[in-house]
Amino acid sequence: MYRSFPDSTEPVPPSQTLRPSALVPEGHASDPFACPCCANVFKETLRLAEVDLARHAKELRRDPLGLAPSLLISNARIMTMNPDAPHADSLLIQDGKIAWIGEAAQKPKLAEDVEAIDFEGQFVMPGFVEPHMHLPPLALLDSFENVGPFRFETITEAIDHLKAVADATPDGQWVVGRQFDPSLQEGPDALTRAMLDEASTEHPVFVYNASLHLAYCNSKALEIAGITAQTEVPAGSEIVKDADGEPNGVLKAGPAMALVARHNPHLHNQNMAEACLEVFHRANRVGITTLCDQGTGLFQGARELELYGALRESNRMTARFRYSLGNAIAKQWDRTEIAWGHGDEWVRVTGWKIVSDGSNQGRTGLQRDPFLNSKEKGIAYIETEELEQAVEQRLREGWAICVHANGDAAIDRVLDAYERADRLGLDPGGRRSRIEHCSILHDEHIERMKALRISPSFLIGHVYYWGNAFVEDLFGPEKAAKLDRTGACEEAGIRWTLHSDDPVTEMGPLRCIENAVTRTRWRSDALLSPEECVPVEAALRAATLDSAWQCHSDHEVGSLEKGKYADFVILDADPRSVEPTSINEIQVLGTWVNGECVYDSNSESPGRKP
Ligand SMILES: [Zn+2]
Ligand SMILES: [Zn+2]
Q1: CATH code at 519?
Q2: Are residues 32 and 153 in the same domain?
Q3: Ligand 2 centre from 168 Cα, in Å?
Q4: How many domains does the chain have?
Q5: Are residues 201 and 329 in the same domain?
Q6: What is the dihedral of CA 32, 34, 35, 37, to 10 degrees?
Q7: What is the CB neighbour count within 10 angstroms for residue 211?
Q8: Residue 263: inside a domain, yes or no?
Q9: Ligand 1 centroid distance, CA of 411 (Å)
Q10: Which residues make up the environment of ion ligand 1, defined by Cβ < 5 Å?
Q11: CATH of residue 220
Q12: What pLDDT score does 28 carry?
């Protein structure tokens, strides 16, 4: 299934290949809020630290393939998401699949070796499908301490936390933080070496800004890296100096950050493939059973497939994995044999991902009109002609297309490209082609999407986390009301989904569902365009069956029905029966994949293969 790709022994290509196109100006080479497709800081860091993903893939421990026992689950309150049979109380699992589902009174005659489990009236629904996240960058980021605004409101608290972490860290080891965001956290605009020296003078301390554009380090980290006033500054980056001309601990852009970060031995020592398995465990804890990477190859080139192959062959996956190939390294993919649908029910390629603009909150989303109090209209990350050609060529090759488009002018261009392909008879809608984020939608966009059967996936955390910024800083209330129009798409009969874009926001399907149902805003009493609120049933469908459909996996997951895999979650409440503003407080009690418990809230470690 996985070949050794011709370029797999080549050195990791230089960082410029991560720029989606020559249209991205140098300063935007890693757009803070777009997909982390462009997070070249990690690519640069891994390259300088000589991290070899192929070696990591080879070293991943394999477990023997276990045979799951046949199980009869009874006395459950099952919401199936199958419109033909929406409720059931019992479920028979054989070989990881649902052999029968229904009411106990109708259950078939069972073989003697079937184990029976009484679910004692617990609520069960299909496992959640996360249709857009970024696995390899997340595998790296997850090993760092989150000191961001959704955890610490003030910078003082964040530093106190780093100090506590440092105190508990063995001598000599690094303390690395992430998600620091002075725009959302109270305190100074930057973390200087003096501030981080308060966390520790013994341990090197290194903190990534949430944008990944900047990093901050303490004196020890600068000392280990040998950074002084005389250090030559790598092109396109900056080592910020204080009034005396000494480095103040602030590093700007990937090359300068990598000068320090690469001295962290953790980068050599941690196995990225193991770290990917940890990401799956984290997904299980919030009820996710299938997730989809939207930008494969943009981090470490085509060799990322070796990582995926190793995951598959380890027999240790606790979630199913889908992925889209990043168009920015199209030439590398063209040298391989990969084609749409390669893989199996555990790991499969299902899309071709194109990035067409930046992000709205980063002011790089491509707009019809300038941003508020600005002349800027954002940035096209791909020429119109190149976009149209890529859409046409990849549809001809059988791919489903996923285009990242945030601004309204970006969405104009994507729909033009899809319409052009449609006129050529390539049926992008029939291929389940998507618009990723699809943030600012005018009514005519929705009409065109409906006509073409193009489906959007919304980064609904925009509404919650950045709702205030959209209204007050970026667009004003009228245009901000056109953000993430779940309600209008639902009304138009368009299939839509919700995603986290983790690490942009954390994976959390129940949080996403609550955001779509309530349209609340973080640190505000106001709702953002309440007319776009959707019924909870619609959001549940978006997070299960429709996400599975977008990921070309609805024939095997997304609902609980005979023949599909037994991938489900146990929740402590039915989301349809709680206050909409409490949906995110529902606890995930258990997560099952392939008929096995992979997360049990009662046991400390995930249930499968401890
Ligand atoms: Zn994106
Ligand atoms: Zn993304």
Answers
A1: 3.20.20.140
A2: yes
A3: 34
A4: 2
A5: no
A6: -70
A7: 17
A8: yes
A9: 13
A10: 35, 404
A11: 3.10.310.70
A12: 37
In three-state form (DSSP H/G/I as H, E/B as E, the rest C), the secondary structure along 28-81 is: HCCCCCCCHHHCHHHHHHHHHCCCCHHHHHHHCCCCCCCCCCCEEEECCEEECC
CA dist 249 and 196 (Å) reads 9
Q: pLDDT band for 237, please (50, 70, 90 cuts).
A: confident
| Residue where a domain stops, chosen among 269, 287, 309 | 269
Q: Is residue 606 part of a domain?
A: no
Q: Could you tell me if residue 277 is inside a domain?
A: no
The answer on 216 and 349 residing in a single domain is no
User: What separation in Å is there between the alpha carbon of 461 and the centre of ligand 1?
Assistant: 13
Q: What's the gap in Å between 131 CA and the centre of ligand 2?
A: 10
pLDDT digits (tens, 9 = 90+) for 296-335: 998 888 989 999 999 999 999 999 999 999 999 999 999 9
Position 86 in a domain: no
Domain that holds residue 450: 325-555
Residue that wins the pLDDT comparison between 183 and 496: 496
What is the CA 84 to chain-centroid distance, rounded?
A: 32
**What is the DSSP-derived secondary structure letter of residue 361?**
T
Ligand nearest to the backbone CA of 34: 1
- CA of 293 from ligand 2 middle (Å) equals 8
Q: pLDDT at position 462, please?
A: 93
Q: How far is the CA of 459 from the centre of ligand 2 (A)?
A: 9
Task: Give the Å distance between the CA of 326 and the centre of ligand 1.
Answer: 11
For residue 236, what pLDDT band results from cuts at 50, 70 and 90?
confident
Which helix (H) or strand (E) covers residue 589, if one does? Answer: strand 588-593
Query: How remote is the CA of residue 295 from the centroid of ligand 2, in Å?
Result: 7
**38 CA distance to ligand 2 centroid (A)?**
10
